[in-house]
């Protein structure tokens, strides 16, 4: 299994989509001799699906086709060399994955056929067991929480621990601590902008374009910042480096 779980699509001032992870993605594409990818763009609400596909094709140097053109979305996944899941609204994305019957086809493609999965922001969220740790608003009345479960822990993309002057609501740390208090058996990995988790086979690696760490939230355990995945070794079934 190969997963690239990115916190976000672009860094501030960066023109190229997925530019901060481009070297890692191109290395994987070359190693696996990938020539095309299927984009799942359902998280996009105010952006054009085909334009997103073009942007990704420019970054990755391969043919990228949006799944909304497929007569059978499930068959498109069954034939895919690589799966790209865009950021946007996580609630919309997860609902559409269920409505289009794509949960099991994606799971089988990634786990059985070893198709690489690249997801950022919302696409990162849906790779986890559920979307309960997304930052997005539930913009649709029908809500589905279970997601793909490709990665065993919850992730909070776009994590920020800055204190905004005048903001009187709960901080992100407080919200994640609340999640763990309600769900004491679960853990949350908080990924800052410009960072990613890479699962390759049975290995797990962490990368940050800004040389920043990630945090792990667990009930009853002091939250700390880490710069490598050794802290996740007791929590995930991968060899951490």
From TrEMBL:
<keyword id="KW-0720">Serine protease</keyword>
<keyword id="KW-0224">Dipeptidase</keyword>
<keyword id="KW-0378">Hydrolase</keyword>
<dbReference type="InterPro" id="IPR029062">
    <property type="entry name" value="Class_I_gatase-like"/>
</dbReference>
<dbReference type="InterPro" id="IPR005320">
    <property type="entry name" value="Peptidase_S51"/>
</dbReference>
<dbReference type="GO" id="GO:0016805">
    <property type="term" value="F:dipeptidase activity"/>
</dbReference>
<protein>
    <submittedName>
        <fullName>Dipeptidase PepE</fullName>
        <ecNumber>3.4.13.21</ecNumber>
    </submittedName>
</protein>
<keyword id="KW-0645">Protease</keyword>
<comment type="similarity">
    <text>Belongs to the peptidase S51 family.</text>
</comment>
<dbReference type="Pfam" id="PF03575">
    <property type="entry name" value="Peptidase_S51"/>
</dbReference>
């Amino acid at each position: 299994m190969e997963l690239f779980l990115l916190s976000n699509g672009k860094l501030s001032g960066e023109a190229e989509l997925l530019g901060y992870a481009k070297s890692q993605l191109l290395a994987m594409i070359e190693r696996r001799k990938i020539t095309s990818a299927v984009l799942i763009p359902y998280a996009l609400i105010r952006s054009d699906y085909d334009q997103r596909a073009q942007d990704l094709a420019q970054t990755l140097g391969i043919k990228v086709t949006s799944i909304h053109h497929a007569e059978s979305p499930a068959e498109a996944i069954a034939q895919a060399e690589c799966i790209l899941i865009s950021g946007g609204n996580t609630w919309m994305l997860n609902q559409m994955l269920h409505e289009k019957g794509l949960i099991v086809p994606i799971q089988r493609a990634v786990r059985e056929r070893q198709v690489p999965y690249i997801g950022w922001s919302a696409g990162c969220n849906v790779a986890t067991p559920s979307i309960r740790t997304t930052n997005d608003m539930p913009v649709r009345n029908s809500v589905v929480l279970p997601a793909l479960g490709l990665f065993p822990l919850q992730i909070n993309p776009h994590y920020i621990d800055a204190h905004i002057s005048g903001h009187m609501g709960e901080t992100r740390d407080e919200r994640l601590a609340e999640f763990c208090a309600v769900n004491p058996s679960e853990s949350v990995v908080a990924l800052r902008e410009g960072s990613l988790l890479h699962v390759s086979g049975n290995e797990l690696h962490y990368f940050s374009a800004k040389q920043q760490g990630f945090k792990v939230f667990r009930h009853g355990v002091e939250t700390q910042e880490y710069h490598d995945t050794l802290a996740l070794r007791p929590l995930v079934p991968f060899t951490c480096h």
